[in-house]
Design brief:
Mean pLDDT: 92
CATH architecture: 3-Layer(aba) Sandwich
Strand order of the largest sheet: 2-1-3-4-11-10-9
Low-confidence stretches: 1-22
Structural class: alpha/beta
Strand content: 15-25%
Distance between the termini: 102 Å
Number of strands: 11
Helix content: 25-40%
Radius of gyration: 21 Å
Largest sheet: 7 strands, mixed
Number of helices: 8
CATH class: Alpha Beta
Shape: globular
CATH topology: Rossmann fold
CATH superfamily: Class I glutamine amidotransferase (GATase) domain
């Protein structure tokens, strides 16, 4: 009887402290290589900051991260409850290098979560488009989606674990929109939605800049989804977030909470009713930034001669 009581007490103690092996959730995070100017596309610093917040506030999470597009081992990925990628996208997307797409497909099939932040939501129509539509619920499709910088005002949020404790907020960012979502938005729940201003269509048509379809929607003030969640048929969960161009955005408590909630939700862990609280200092926000040279200013436009 003493042995039974001892074992029961030990099990309860482990569970209460989040140390029970079966309660652990493995969160694998991948940061892309440096790009853009200072304090922009700070993948390495951003991933480390988010990992810090998760480690400090989620007792039952095993958080690992890889920097500069280093790809995790097959063994690590096989244990992952969710995989987070914050990187440049397009043809240089870390998921499209070597056999990485096939490796991800294997993990998605068993129901692993998938999270992509900012440029990481963009892949070519092929390879990548069908896979990301399935795993993430939608993606940035060249010549369909656009990437302007604008002030997005998120006045309302849906009732969803990802929005737990998140208050309406507004920020200036490179908020992508007019994403290529699943047919009929099957399984997809919009999380952040706003109406882009006419100024977002100031550029000529191009693979990222504009096209007739998106111009018509902006003209008609059609709300655009810039962050979304999906519950997949394989049992997995996905989350796409198009903000994150500016590193300072992670200093916004509501933006940070929303993304932390989403990562935990995608791993099928319980999100607290008030969301995941996290505190960061200015020094922590400035830590781990990649050394970058300031971009040279654009040359002045030539002055037209008077007629």
């Amino acid at each position: 009887m003493k042995h039974i009581l001892l074992n029961t007490t030990l099990a309860l103690s482990l569970a209460a402290t989040g140390l029970a092996a079966e309660a652990k959730k493995s969160i694998v995070m991948i940061a892309g290589k440096p790009s853009h100017g200072p304090a922009q596309h700070e993948h390495n610093a951003g991933i480390q900051l988010l990992a810090k917040c998760l480690k400090e506030n989620i007792a039952n999470a095993d958080v690992t991260f890889h920097l500069n597009a280093e790809w995790p081992s097959a063994e690590e990925l096989a244990k992952a409850d969710t995989i987070v990628i914050y990187s440049d996208g397009g043809g240089g997307h870390p998921a499209l290098q070597g056999d990485h797409l096939a490796t991800l497909a294997k993990e998605m099939k068993r129901g692993c979560g998938f999270v992509c932040l900012h440029y990481a939501v963009e892949v070519p129509i092929t390879p990548g488009g069908p896979e990301f539509t399935d795993w993430l619920g939608g993606y940035f499709e060249p010549n369909w989606s656009v990437n302007p910088h604008w002030d997005a005002d998120f006045k309302e949020l849906p009732k969803h674990p990802i929005s737990s404790g998140v208050k309406p907020f507004a920020t200036n960012d490179e908020w992508y929109f007019h994403m290529r979502f699943r047919e009929g938005m099957k399984g997809v729940t919009p999380i952040l939605t706003a109406i882009p201003p006419e100024s977002t269509m100031s550029r000529k048509d191009g693979p990222h800049e504009g096209n007739p379809a998106v111009r018509e929607e902006v003209k008609n003030q059609v709300p655009q989804h810039v962050s979304w969640a999906v519950e997949r048929e394989d049992g997995g969960r996905g989350f796409g977030f198009t903000g994150g161009h500016y590193h300072k955005g992670w200093g916004n408590e509501n933006q940070r909470k929303l993304v932390l909630n989403a990562i935990v939700w995608s791993a099928k862990a319980e999100v607290p009713s008030g969301g995941i609280e996290s505190k960061i200092t200015d020094d922590e926000l400035a830590a781990n930034l990649d050394p970058k040279q300031p971009r040279k200013p654009a040359p002045p436009k030539p002055v037209e001669a008077a007629k």
